[in-house]
Amino acid sequence: MPRLPDPVRSRAVLIGTGDHAEGSGLPPLPAIRANLDDLREVLTAPTTGVLPPEHCVTVADPATGTEAGSALARVAQEATDLLLVYYGGHGLVDDRGRLHLALPRTEATQPRWSALPFETLREELADSPAAIRVLILDCCFSGRAIEAMTGAHGVVSGQIDIAGTYTLASTSATAVSYAPEGAIHTAFTGALLTALGRPDPLSLDGLFGVVQHDLAVRGLSRPQRRVVNAAGDLVLTRPTGARAVQPAVTKRPDRETSAPTPPSPMPRLHALGVMALVMFQLFAGLLTPALSVALPSLQRDLGISTGMLTWVQGAYLLTYGTFLPIAGLLCDRWGRRRVFVGGALVFFVSCLIAAQTFTGAPLVVARMMQGAGAAFGMAGSLALVAGRLRRPATLVFLGIAAVAMPGFGVLLGSALVNAGSWTVLLTAHALVAGVFALVGWYCIDATEPMGQPITFRGWRNTAVVSLCAGAFAYALIRAPGSGWTDRVVLVSLAPAIVLLGVWLPLAKRTKGPLAFLSDRRRLAAAFCTICVAGGLSVAVQFLSQYAQNIGGDSASDAAVLLLPLTLAALVAGSFAPFLHRWVGAGPPAALGALLLTGALYWLSRATEHAAKDPVTVWPLLLAGAGGGLAMAVLAVAALTDVPFPRLGLGAAALGSAQWIGVYGLALAVGSSVMQSVVALRLSQASTAAEDASARIDDALAEGITRALTVGCLFPLVCVPVAVIAFGRPASRHRSRPAGGSAVAS
Questions:
Q1: Which of 72, 230, 633, 734 is exposed most, by the fewest CB atoms within 10 A?
Q2: Residue 36's pLDDT is what?
Q3: Strands 11-16 and 82-88
Q4: Which residues contact 501 (CB under 8 A, 6 or more apart)?
Q5: Is pTM beyond 0.85 here?
């Protein structure tokens, strides 16, 4: 049965070394400070923590071994129930195989004289009167990879046999532990914090099982545990109903055992709950392209103007982009399940209202409600899927779904409009959203507790990001019709430019969404997602226009012609988990962006002159394979290392990047280029010498060609960003026995 430690008689000391002197031979570890701060926050949280703040001591970058040792000695003697000791930093082994813990002034070649001997820490633990001692070591032995934590030596687990102690080590003696460059936490401590943040508190054995599973599915080194006397049923976080958990025993065990209880399995969502989450993402994303097929009949039935028709489409995108940051924050505060069900219900009600409108203004208002509901539902579903099913194969779907939505949406819209009218389309979406909300409410685990209260700074920063996103969306909607030099467009773009140019460089000093976005790899994943999704959107949109306006095809026929692109994206994206595991995110993302760039250039040459069927299947397959591979691996990179308490913001960041890419910047720029070229060519054409229809077709073909050419630039920019930001993948190593030399495999 799980047991809680006695907070009055329990102590914790968290030691970490992230800064090292120049020339020491040890790279700095910026993530160590976040490890210490967040682990302390979890242990001392007012509602879920097991220790009062005064009983948790943090020693960050101790100048000498005396500073760390004196703090440890004092805390170890005060603890009579639980003593928890954490160390994060470089682990070094001398020529005799003895473990040393690095300090800021430690030299990699002289660990015996400049580091803290583990034997000293071991003796303090052994002399402590604590009944249960938990030792957590996040250090490793190999630094040959750029993202590894240390350079030459490793943890020797045989040295940490201390009676009455439960030991967690970040890696075995034959593997490397990772600190991903630019990540908030090291890999092991990040997984540990994610497990500690779960709504159902886990025992030490359960924590080990979840952390081991989390690291294994990401292709990282598996952690190691050692149990001397049974302490595996101790829990380090307090559940909501804490009375159901018994306090830890205070009597010291008399005998040793090496048979801990089996780790708890990784929990999963109910199958119907998973289906509801996935299908809501699909149907919410399909609504906008599906409704585009019904715009002519909608305009005819309601008698609305062309300007109002533009806002029927734009209102959804405006509120969707505006409310995504707020939805992500509320996911982390109020729970993903609540936010998802609430968003699905708003989407359900707004679709019913839109289906029953008879004028344009109520329809625009209903579309704005749809965008807000979709934002909350998408953020909640993304966070639930990424948090409960932390498998790259699952995260891949979140990336390639954005590729499949435009084509499948047009097919769905054509089928429903042909079967009835635009009211049938909206009513069907309403019924589907209502069913998903009901299934989600009953089939998704309801034990998720409330998160930490949101500070004023968190609300303020989120509001600023949301307002900037809304202004940016308004500029993208207005620019194709009014031009990029329009005063309103420029004023709307200004907040987004200020946010990128001024706020993000200072984001690491703040808390909330901007602090989360300041991570280099997540910024790179978001930027590359925008570029790749923009290139795919340009291909789908302008090839569809070509097929309809020049080839004379219907919208559904044009969607069928583009099916090879969608299918190739689905197939290529399925390989992303394996590529991400073995070569990292950089090479697949760069390769996919290059393939998409080449395909767009190929398509631009094929559409240069007006012809009925200029596009063959091969460039479409190439574009789909490149775009699908890049989008899938970028989704894995964006969400894999996100801590559980910040999954809402992580999902909102990924959703925002996909929204800007699919419906935003590249499409607006391409539309402006096409309209400018068409207007210029028609003004220069000689009306006496040419047929009017042929002139229009030639001008439109050239405009589409220029738009596709400009679209090539977006995925092309992604290539150097992916290579630089993600760097080379972390190498895998085989270690030597203690005292030998490390050899890279």
A1: 734
A2: 92
A3: parallel
A4: none
A5: no
